[in-house]
Write a structure and sequence with these properties.
With 74 residues, the chain is mainly alpha-helical. It has one domain. The chain has two helices and no strands. It is rod-shaped, with a radius of gyration of 21 Å. The chain starts with a helix and ends in a 5-residue tail after the last helix. Keywords: Membrane, Transmembrane, Transmembrane helix.
């Protein structure tokens, strides 16, 4: 999940939690709880995207540098 999808989940969760009445679909569906769950998923996604982004960039550079310093044996 990228940062964009995570922000979408955060926004959707905030809308469901704060802008929509909790009992709009009746007593069986709690929109405020669903909104909180979406905000948690979005927050975790943003954190993971930020933490794992530098690792993704480094792996391709490491492989490129390894090839340049160690040419294949012919």
């Amino acid at each position: 999940m990228g940062v964009g999808v995570s922000i979408f989940f955060l926004t959707l969760g905030a809308i469901l939690r704060f802008a929509i009445e909790p009992d709009v679909f009746g007593q069986s569906v709690h929109m405020d709880v669903i909104g909180v769950i979406f905000m948690i998923v979005g927050g975790v996604g943003v954190v993971l995207s930020i933490v794992l982004a530098p690792r993704r960039g480094r792996t391709s550079d490491d492989r490129l540098m390894h090839r340049e310093n160690n040419p294949p044996d012919i």
